[in-house]
Amino acid sequence: MNKKIVVLLKYFKGELNPFDGSALECALELGGDITVVSMAPRSVLSALQSLTRLGVKAVLVSDDIYAGSDTQATSLILAETIKKINPDLVFCGKQSVDGDTAQVPPMLAERLGYDIKVGLMSFDGTTAIQRNGNAVTLQNKTIYTFEKIRTLRFPSIFSKAGEVQVLDNSILGLPREKCGLKGSPTRVIKSYESSVGRRECEWKEFKDLPDLIKKGLEKPLISQSQDQTEKLEIVHFVGKVKDKAENIAKTAVELTVDGKTPSEFAREIEEKKVKVLLFEDSQELKIFASRTAVITGAGICADCISFRVENERLVMTRPALGGNVTADIVCESPIAFATVRTVKNESSKVIFSIGKGVIDKIDKIKELAKEYGAEVCCSRIVADSGKMPYEKQVGLTGRTVCPKVYVAFGISGAVQHTCAIAGAGTVIAVNINKKERIFDYADYGIIAEV
Asked: Which of 7, 52, 184, 256 is the most exposed place for a label (fewest CB within 10 A)?
């Protein structure tokens, strides 16, 4: 299959984004005319040159005026680059490890007029399965985003490195005011270490588990959102985020996107003079929001966990760097979009969640869960192993949950996981290692073999 393929790569702290590495490996398996493209400082030149030993062409997009670009500006610069190559297919990772927004691919699709298929979990060169279970066939003029389903191969010791083509703005010819910080409608005004969900842990024994679960079920859930004293006049919303809109606005107005294209919805936004628009964070709406943002020029903030209004300006808070950092962001554009982290499957009163430490005891935990009518979920590493389906994954790249009782079995407590259980009424952690991070985010800790 002699396709012309562009693979988009991002480097963070000198390391290739593993999602992008997976996309490149899939492209190499497919074969064809492959060009890797990275928008980065010239410091990544040597890394890109080493990739040419895999038999690919390499393009570095680099200019001082591109520094500080947010997703809007980045997608504009990359789209102009891709147009010059005119590929059949565009491959990239599902998201980057630093931003985690997953906004650039759908923005590129809108700018290029391409279709987009996200979250490929399997790939055989002709067909692929998305994270939601849908099967897709490889089609031209489509962007495909990949989960970490492959590890990038090493080049042969006999291979030779090629040249890296460098494109700067003298070649791309983009307006300076559309690039870098000048062309970025979103601004990070503050970033700080994340402490979302931190709790005081009380140590118990495994025999206490039934009583702890009963106690947690009897305790009322406390709302995580704080009512705002300062509010905007009007906020529009799409999906199940009415409560978030009402918390920051005197008037909350619902809009629907059913049956509308991003262009049609953009016209509606203009007609209704929308200033702030919140979207539920379903996969479909996140893609739709990103594509609409390109048309309207809106600044867009992904996966927001809270909002506040300061001096008539909306401040959006979201996790970044895999949840290690919390960032406060504002929009300088006339329209502000935000996708909102929403709780999935609120009906589950008790969740038993399985981590790497008990991956060989899934059946036993499922049996125990039946006694409490508990839903069984898992951490990302368990889902990646294929032992449990991805729709059961709790975490930054999975589901946010809000049960009355959350029991974490054999989970270390990476930030990607703990930020998604902050809304739980009672968190109980069971682990053999007392030093695990999960205990800093648990109400009760039990040191025991399951």
From this structure: 256
